[in-house]
Amino acid sequence: MLARAFDRGTVLFLVILAIAVVLVPLGNLAMEPGSAAYLPSYAVSLLGKYLCYAILALSVDLIWGYCGILSLGHGAFFALGGYAMGMHLMREIGDRGVYANPELPDFMVFLNWKELPWYWWGFDIFPFAVVMALFVPGLLAFVFGWFAFRSRVTGVYLSIITQAMTYALLLAFFRNEMGFGGNNGLTDFKDVLGFSLQDDGTRAGLFILSGICLGVFYILCRVIVTSRLGKVLVAVRDAESRTRFLGYRVEYYKLFVFTLSAMMAGVAGALYTPQVGIINPGEFSPANSIEIVIWVAIGGRGTLAGAALGAVLVNAAKTLFTGWFPEIWLFALGALFIAVTLFLPKGVLGLFARKRRRRTTPPLPGDIPETAPDLSREMPSGAQPKPAE
Predict the structure, then answer these.
(1) 20-56 CB burial, b ≥16 within 10 A, e <16
(2) In DSSP terms, which residues pair with 279 in a beta bridge?
(3) Which of 146, 277, 287, 288 has the most C-beta neighbours closer than 10 Å?
(4) pTM beyond cutoff 0.85
C-alpha cells in the first residue's frame, strides 16, 4: 500500500513541503533583519495559516474528490477543533488575565459566571485538548453521517443539510450563555506548553508542526485512495446504486471517510488557533465552508496535491488583493471559480498534468501527423492513387 501511495507526484509534493518546512524557519531565525533572505515573524504565522488551510482542503478533497460527498459544512469541524485548542490556551492564561482569576477566563468573569462549566473541565491538560480536537469533530461527523447516509441523503440535499448544520452552530456559539466567549470568541492567548506565542521560536515550531501534519495527512490520504478502499470510494462516487447492488454497504464507507475527514479538519483548526491568536464564531460561517470547496476546485478536485495547492494559492491571493482591492475580492474569487469550472474542470494541477501527457504520449499507429505531405503535387495530372492492398 505504501509503495502504491508513493508515486512521483507524492514524492515531489513531500520534497517541496520539506524544503518549505526547513527554509521558512531558517529565514526567520537564522537571518538578520534587513537582509534579503530574512522572513518576518508575521510571515511565518501567515504561511503556517496557509498550511492549516491546506490540511482543511485535503480533508474536503478526500470526501468530495474521491467519494462524491459535497460538504458545505466542513468549516464547522475546523472551528470545533480550533475551539478545543482555544479552550486549552485560555486555561493556560490562569491568573495572568485582566481579572486575575486562576480558574475562570476573563470573559466569564466579565459575564458574572460563578464557576467553570463542566464542559471546560480537563482542558487545562494539553493531551486532553488534543484528543478533544479530534474527538468532538469526529463525533459530530459520525452522528450526522450515521443518520444522513443511512437515510440515503445524497447530492444537493446533503450539501444543504451540512450547510444548515454549520449555520446552527454559528448561531449557538454567538450566544454568551453558551460559555464560549460569544461573538468575541476566545483570544488573548499567552503561551502553549510554557512557550510564549509571541516568541519567534514558537512561531517557527508551530509552522514546522503544521507542515509535518500536512505531510502525514497527505500520505494517509494517498494510502487510502490507492488501496482497495479507495477504489470502492471512487465506485461510490461514480455509480453509487450499482456499487450498492454489488453488495457493498455504501453507507459504512461514506461514514468512515466522512468521519476521518472531519477529524483532519479538527486538527487543522487546532493548529490554526495558536498561530492566528483568535477563534470566534465567524469560523462557522457557511461562506467559509463554500470557500473551502472553491480552493479544492481551483487546485484540482480528486488530486489531493491540487487541493493543498489551491488552498495556498487562493489564500495568498486573498492576502494580497484584500489589501490592494478589498471591495472587489469576492467578485474576483467568484469569477475565478466560474472560469475554472468552465475551462479547467480538473483545476490548475489538471492543466499541468494534461500538458505533461501531451509531451510524453507517443503517437499511435495510424495517427495522421499534423504536417502530412501533399501527395497531389507529386502525382502526374489525371493520375489516380492506387487502392490499398
Answers:
(1) bbeebbebbeeeeeeeeeebebeebbbbbbbbbbbbb
(2) 186
(3) 288
(4) yes
Joined together, the cell numbers standing for residue 187 give 483570544
Note whether 279 and 82 are within 8 A (CB). Answer: yes
Q: What is the pLDDT of residues 82-137, one digit of tens each?
A: 999 999 999 999 888 888 888 899 899 988 888 999 999 999 999 999 999 999 99
Whether 262 contacts 76, CB under 8 Å: no
Q: Summarize pLDDT for 221-236 with one digit per residue, the tens.
A: 999 999 999 999 999 9
Determine the distance from the C-alpha atom of residue 202 to the mean position of all C-alpha atoms in its chain, rounded to a whole number: 23
**Helix 329-343 to helix 305-324 angle, to the nearest 10 degrees?**
150
Domain segments of the chain: what residues? Answer: 2-32+44-359
CB neighbour list of residue 188: distance below 8 Å, 6 or more residues apart: 93, 97, 106
| Number of continuous H segments (helices) and E segments (strands) in the chain | 15, 4
Is the sign of the CA dihedral 227, 50, 194, 109 positive or negative?
negative
